[in-house]
Write a structure and sequence with these properties.
Blueprint (H helix, E strand, L loop, with lengths): L10 H6 L17 E3 L5 E3 L8 E6 L4 H17 L4 E6 L15 H15 L4 E4 L5 H5 L7 E4 L5 E5 L5 H11 L9 E2 L3 H18 L1 H10 L1 H11 L6 H32 L9 H15 L2 H10 L2 H10 L2
Parallel strand pairs: 3-4, 4-5, 7-8
Antiparallel strand pairs: 1-2, 3-6, 6-7
Helix pairs in contact: 2-6, 6-7, 6-8, 6-9, 7-8, 8-9, 10-12, 11-12
């Protein structure tokens, strides 16, 4: 299996997906394509000319795709009258036993239909070829969103389809309602947190090996996703935020416990406090009285240096 159609997710794949590396930029023409759809028809580049369009990429094993569905459907209700919505089904993000990387067009079409049914997608879903020709021409990101103007040129692009703020900016740019400003967005924190909120259940659906791959490639990510799933009644972002708060609280309790143990150990160490000057002077006098006979002490007091006389006099009081 070639590099594009990997059979196992790894750290290198993760690193490639966090920034744009190429593909058409704002003002560039949309690459030509002619793809089958899940409904049995065809979708071509020319079919999108005449009004703005939003093209997103997806797969049934992609957590970013799963977390994007509610956002995209809400935006579809608001913009479908003025913007055409299209999703292109691409390679599997986390292939597993149930959803392996397709090795023929029919299997890929089957996966696309299962994605469409799971997320209840109301717009057209096209299916890229096995080699991902169109997907790779568009930089090959798992869940990117591309806004195309009425003339078939790129108006705006977002690294993730679940980045609502970026999508709203894209609609404004494509519809000519935005002034000068950004024509792409690569936000990571909130989109990735949304994806992490559904990662574990997506991996479970893909198959056991999908979980193993993520565990090997990014153990902290895997552990965080497992924890986030415990907050399943919440939306994807809410699950991740709750998991993050729980992690911080646990870390705080561990640190607090360690500090208490350290204090307890310190309390067992017997420390002799410094002696007061008057106590030290009294002790010194006692030692002088025991060490010298009265005659010797008086002789030192008469003939000794001033400091010696002072000490002896104080000691003999």
């Amino acid at each position: 299996m070639d590099e594009y159609r990997f059979s196992h997710f790894d750290r290198e794949v993760l690193g490639e997906d966090v920034a744009f590396h190429g593909g058409p930029a704002a003002g560039d023409a949309l690459p030509d394509f002619d793809l089958p759809t899940t409904s049995g028809g065809r979708l071509r580049r020319d079919d999108l000319l005449g009004r703005p369009a939003l093209i997103t990429f997806a797969s049934v094993t992609c957590p970013m795709t799963a977390s994007a569905a509610p956002i995209l459907k809400a935006l579809y209700e608001a913009y479908s009258g003025r913007v055409a919505f299209v999703t292109v089904y691409v390679r599997e993000a986390h292939p597993g036993e149930r959803y392996p990387q397709p090795d023929d067009d029919e299997r890929k079409l089957e996966h696309a239909r299962e994605y469409e049914a799971r997320d209840e997608i109301p717009w057209r879903v096209a299916v890229d070829d096995i080699e991902g020709t169109f997907h790779q021409a568009m930089d090959g990101h798992t869940n990117a969103a591309w806004f195309i103007d009425a003339d078939g040129r790129v108006a705006f692009r977002s690294l993730w389809s679940n980045d609502e703020r970026a999508l709203r900016r894209g609609f404004a740019v494509a519809l000519g309602e935005a002034g000068r400003g950004a024509v792409e967005r690569e936000s990571r924190v909130l989109p990735l947190l949304r994806g992490l909120g559904v990662l574990d259940e997506v991996l479970e659906a893909a198959g056991p090996s999908a979980r193993v791959d993520v565990k090997r490639a990014a153990l902290p990510v895997y552990a965080f996703a497992r924890l986030a799933r415990q907050f399943r009644p919440l939306p994807p972002l809410g699950r991740s935020l709750a998991a993050g708060a729980t992690t911080l609280a646990a870390a705080f309790l561990v640190v607090r416990g360690l500090m208490r143990l350290l204090r307890r150990d310190d309390s067992r160490i017997e420390v002799t406090p410094p002696r007061r000057p008057d106590v030290m002077e009294e002790d010194m006098g006692s030692r002088v009285r025991h060490a010298l006979t009265p005659e010797a002490a008086e002789r030192i007091a008469r003939r000794g240096r001033p400091v010696q006389r002072y000490v002896i006099e104080r000691a003999l009081r």
